[in-house]
Amino acid sequence: MEPFSIPLETIYLYALIISGIITIIFVLFADVFHFHGAGEGLEFLNPVLIFAFVTIMSASGYLFEKLSSIHYLLILGISIVIGLILVTLLHVFVLVPVSKAEESLVYKESDLQGRVGTVITSIPADGFGEVIIESTSGRIAKPAKSFDADSIPNGTRVLVVQVKNGVLEVTVYQQLENFTL
Asked: Are 92 and 13 contained in the same domain?
């Protein structure tokens, strides 16, 4: 069949090229436009999924038209099913886990104030040592000095009082036991 006197394989090929380019552009620039879907309950209307569906459907349609002699409606049906299956797998195994991942592992030094860490290199009274702070996103090792000008031995739990010029100023952490109001 040739709608508008254009072979179907050419239509599939044009759809493949155009939707592939749009998909790549959208994936690269989606964060610039802050668009992540049409709504909370309508995740299947995510433009990445729509463009990926059109790309996969047109690619399989093109291949079937070029390499087989199956009826064009059957080719369209098979291409739609293949597109739906692959886009569902893309959504379940790639997009959902990525969307639930931590958005950023970047931290500001002021975020470290008030955190508890462990001395990994002893801090002399008038010098510098090193402290490691553990969090759910990983470990942060930073240079440190004593806030109270006391020496702090290796392995001691410390509280970050303030951060100046990338250096943590820490004091020995004393956890309150049996504290009641």
From this structure: yes
Distance separating alpha carbons of residues 15 and 28, to the nearest angstrom: 20
* Distance set, CA 45 to CA 21, 48, 50 (Å): 19, 8, 7
- AA identity, residue 96: V
Does residue 140 sit within a domain? yes
Q: How many CB atoms lie within 10 A of CB 59?
A: 21
Q: Is the pLDDT at 56 greater than 70, yes or no?
A: yes
How wide is the angle at C-alpha 84 spanned by C-alphas 13 and 61, nearest 5°? 25
DSSP letter at 123 equals B
Residue 138, domain extent: 109-172
CA distance 13 to 123: 67
Tell me, yes or no, whether 93 and 132 share the same domain.
no
Residue 36 has pLDDT above 60, yes or no: no
Structure tokens at 169: 């100023």
**Residue closest to 119 by CA, chosen among 136, 142, 138:** 142
Provide, rounded to the nearest whole percent, the portion of the chain with pLDDT above 70.
83
Q: Cα–Cα distances in Å, from 26 out to 32, 55, 68, 94, 99?
A: 10, 13, 32, 16, 16
